[in-house]
Each structure stands twice: as structure tokens, then as C-alpha cells.
Amino acid sequence: MAEDTFTGKVVIVTGGGSGIGAATAHRFAAGGATVVIIGRTQAKLDKVMSGAPTGSTLIARVGDVSDEEEITGLVDAVAQEHGRLDTLVNNAATCEPLGTVSDIDATGWRRVMSTDVDGVFFASRAALPHLRAVGGSIVNVGSASGLGGDWGLAAYNAAKGAVTNLTNAMALDHGAEGVRVNAVHPSMISTDMTAGFLQNDAIVAAALNRVPMQRFGEPAEAASVITFLASPAASYVNGAHIRVDGGLGASNGNPHIA
């Protein structure tokens, strides 16, 4: 990506306080964009700000994507303050509580759905008028867990599955308006969300046995795909779903048998 790829562009990244969101914000900023990161925790946002590329424009805003009024106000304020909005990256998500349908109560179910699904809906609906004005794009951060199931992640699987098909619906509905909508689907990326799993030796060994590249991904590797989808190089890419999983999705599910 050239250093000036996003010069003059304005980008919002939700869930920008760590992991893929932070890496994505830094990559857009390095490309010349004005980047606004939204997250719930000021201290985490401040840490991302402190690591911003030299000379870049990175702005932090505290907000909760599951609060319709709050996220709508934040998106509108960004567009008004900077005169435009070119890209929305819907990255904010949670996978907790873990568990099966039998394990999870209604409160836990709503916690996942409100962030992972409602948040994408609220932020996208707020952004669309501004994106139409400039021919912008939305990149949804889905998950391999939205393309296939996991044991014990019923709420997260359901939420990310919804994001997958919401991406399809928005690509159909808004492509003619000049707004492209795509998704990336990471798996086993080293982030705060996966940290607990990656500290379990048995899970690590089992996971690496399934990943053809025999390693876990880094947030920057997902960020590079996100920024590509938002760039002029992807000008005819709409409704795409790109796995960032080291080849995990190439398997039919069988163990090593040859």
C-alpha cells in the first residue's frame, strides 16, 4: 500500500482499542487517512494513539456501538467535523459469554448480539448517507466462526453468521448507490479476544494441527486485507468474503490421514 493511498480520506474503525482494530487504524493512518477509532475504554484508545505512525492523524472517541443513539451521534459528528466519511470498519465484537444454547442465559446472549450484530447495524445505518455522498465502503470484520460452527460458542457463531449474511444483503442493497460492502473473516489471530485460548497448550496444539501455515496470524495481517478492501485497488470488489486464517478453511474437516 502506497503511503498516500488514503490521503484526504476519513475512516472510522470501531473496536479500535486493541488487536485487529488497532492495527487497522495504524495502517489506514500510515496511508494518509484521518482515522477515528471508537471504543469503550479510554485507556486502551490512548495506548493505540501513542503507537500511531509518526505524522499521522489518529483521533480517539469513547463510545459503545450497541447504543444506537450514541454511535449514530458519533458517526454523524465525525462526518460533519471532517467534511466526509469514506470508510467504516465494523470491528467491535465480543465472544463472551462462551457456552452452548443450554449454558447461555438471555442476558449473555443479548450481550453478544448487541455488540456483534446490533453494533454493525447501527453504525452502518448511520454511516450510509455519508458514504453514499463520496462513494465509500464498509468493511465488516466477521470471523471463521461465522462461516462454520465451533463447539461451545453458540452466541458468537450466531452473531458472526449474521454479520456474514448482513454483508451480503448490504452489498446487494447499496452497491448501486456506490457503496461497496465486504467482509474479512479472521481465525486464530493473536488478539486480546483469543489470548485465553492461546494460553492453553492443548488448544494451541490442536489448532496448529489444523492450520496449514502452522502458526497463528498477527493483527497486521488482517489489517492489510481490510485496507485493501477499502482501497481503490478493490474498486470492483463488492460482497466479497476473504478468509484470513492461514488456510484453515481449505480443509474439509478431516484430520491428517495421508
From TrEMBL:
Keywords: Oxidoreductase. It comes from the Bacteria. Transmembrane segments: none annotated. It is an enzyme of class 1 (oxidoreductase). PANTHER family: 3-OXOACYL-[ACYL-CARRIER-PROTEIN] REDUCTASE, SHORT-CHAIN DEHYDROGENASES/REDUCTASES FAMILY MEMBER. NCBIfam families: PRK07231.1. This is SDR family oxidoreductase. It comes from Streptomyces hyaluromycini.
